[in-house]
Amino acid sequence: MTTTPTPTQATRRGRPGYDRQTLVDLCVKVFNRHGYEATSMGMLATELGISKSAIYHHVKTKEEILQSALDDALDGLEAVTEQAEHTAGPARDKIEALIKGAVKVLVNRQHSVTLLLRLRGNSEVETKALLRRRDLTTRLASLIADAQAEGSVRETTSPKVLARLIYGTVNSLVDWYSPEKSAGAEQTGDVLVDLIFQGIEQD
């Protein structure tokens, strides 16, 4: 008698059990738990409960998964930076828009942003991602310099240092933000804007 394999059995024989985006998202969570370098394709297969061939159905290499995750994080951050730069009004308003936008990206793409923040530049993919991340800091620093020139941000600290401090504050969300226990992205962004500007506003 011929039996029909169960979904689990079919998956274990190598048939893809996830669509590509879901696969990437789950792999990124594994990278964040164990470290990208320490995670092998075999470990990913075990953690996801599928065969390695099921993973290779969607991606060719582990680095392709990394590239997809980093693009997800950086594309989002670059988009909100672009929007902030074109926000009408003074530079202070642009900085506020950028902070709130960055918070939304982090909340909505927390796992891929977490992976981005843990990079060490150990490959060409990582090095290029770090360069894109530094460019974001440079663009924020430019807005801060404009705000200093208009008198809305104190000039006692360089724009680059302030930009790093602001991103450091926003990026700290990856260590404690929980969708189930924390306020939503909009409220969290409002709180961070208030706290940050209390520290950098011109008296």
TrEMBL record:
Residues 40-59 bind DNA. The keyword Cell membrane does not apply. Keywords: DNA-binding, Transcription, Transcription regulation. InterPro entries: Homeodomain-like_sf (IPR009057), HTH-type_TetR-like_transc_reg (IPR050109), HTH_TetR (IPR001647), KstR2_TetR_C (IPR041490), Tet_transcr_reg_TetR-rel_C_sf (IPR036271). It comes from the Bacteria. Residues 17-77 form the HTH tetR-type domain. PROSITE patterns: HTH_TETR_2 (PS50977). Pfam families: TetR_C_24 (PF17932), TetR_N (PF00440). Gene3D superfamilies: Homeodomain-like, Tetracycline Repressor, domain 2. This is AcrR family transcriptional regulator. The lineage of its organism: Bacteria, Bacillati, Actinomycetota, Actinomycetes, Micrococcales.
